Amino acid sequence: MPKDEMQIPTPARARPGLVPRFISWLFGTGDGGRSAAHGTHMELFRIRGELAVLRAEIEAMHAAVGRRDIATLEELLRGGNRRQIEALIRDRTQIVPLPDGSVLCRALGRFKMFTDAADGGMAPHLLLDGYWEYWVTEFLCRNLARGETAYDIGAIYGYYTILLADLVGPEGRVVSLEPNPWLHWLLRRNIAVNGLGGIVTPHRLAAAEAKHESVRVPALLVGPFAGPFANWFTFEEGRAGCPAPAVALQDLEPGSVDFLRIGVASAADRVVAGMAGLMDRSPGLRILLEFDANRCKEAPALLAALSGRYPLRFIDGDSLAKPCTAEELLTQRRVATLYLSKMEPR
């Protein structure tokens, strides 16, 4: 059977799990008619048999889609359910610390990625799990097509940039913006090491409401203090920042865009204020926006502007886009990944 059609074997048994049955036997809450010795012998015999079956199923799963480089993200998603896919990706993780303050790891089972060794946010997930926000990753894999044009705003290392590039393929294109010079350098390295230079165009730019020669952007990651980018960063009230040129997305390039990811929650209102023209000329635009009512300065105005154009939806933990209201986002949920489009998601 071709690999693309393979399905990960799943057990057909409906019996209780091993742990509940063991606890039931241990505390005598199971069948009371058998002798203790006979019950012990029979239960251990069944456990050994089921463990043997489970080992065989795991070996079959590895033979189908594990223990090798996963060819495509589509194949990865066809491999099984979410927990199985996460386990397969995690099984492929590997890290290599480097002397320049970065750590090389493997993401999504096949992509090489340089991360910041001092990062306590995204990097630990990439280093140990091999993925970031899997529910969003899965949603993107279902909702992008070959040949499309995508923007990644606030790319950081380029996890989503690389994911988008793989999904749109050589027929498509990705534009990636990251204003932090240290992260922009890691982003460019990640694009190059994965051979995506022909698909992705990276810019050291911030997205804003209009063009600016220089704006100060916050910098949570600054690289080694003795590194080549150390002089770019200044500290005010204990917070690091750096200068960067800014552009309104509607003026970045002519033409329409199919997909736009906005990953800068603290500046989302400024980004959206500078993309009215882009939304007007992109009727099929799909937007994925990191919303944080605690960090966005003009959260009510932002939601009012977006809900005037698109239905409000958020990506839930099952990777499905579900309806929500501005009031819910401002009071109950407050932090969410929003899906904004006139197009129904898959």
Automatic annotation (TrEMBL):
<dbReference type="InterPro" id="IPR029063">
    <property type="entry name" value="SAM-dependent_MTases_sf"/>
</dbReference>
<dbReference type="Pfam" id="PF01135">
    <property type="entry name" value="PCMT"/>
</dbReference>
<protein>
    <recommendedName>
        <fullName>FkbM family methyltransferase</fullName>
    </recommendedName>
</protein>
